[in-house]
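Quick start: what a row looks like.
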Amino acid sequence: MLLERLRSGSVTLLDVRAADESAHGHLPGALNVPLAELDAALAKLPRNQAVIAYCRAPYCVLSYEAVAALRSKGLKAYRLEEGYPEWKAAGLPVEA
C-alpha cells in the first residue's frame, strides 16, 4: 500500500497541484511541485526510487503530464489514480 511505502521512505510523492491548493491539504509527506515548476525541481528528486504524482481528481491531466515529463527524464514515475479529494474522502490521512 502507498502509505506503507511512504512511511518506509521507498517512494517520493509529488503533489503537482498549485501551491495554494496543496497548502489547504495534501497527502502525507508529499512534495508540492506544481507542474510548471517540475523541470526546475528535477535535480532534487531521487533517482533511486519511484516517484508517484497526483493532482485534483482521477481525470486531472496534471499528473498525467508530470509522469510523462518525469519518464522522459529517466525517472521511474507513476500516477496515483485517485486525486486528493478521493484520498481524503476515503478517510486516509492528510496534512495541511
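That is the whole record. Strands lie at 11-15, 31-32, 50-54, 77-79. The helical segments are 2-8, 19-23, 38-41, 61-72, 84-89.
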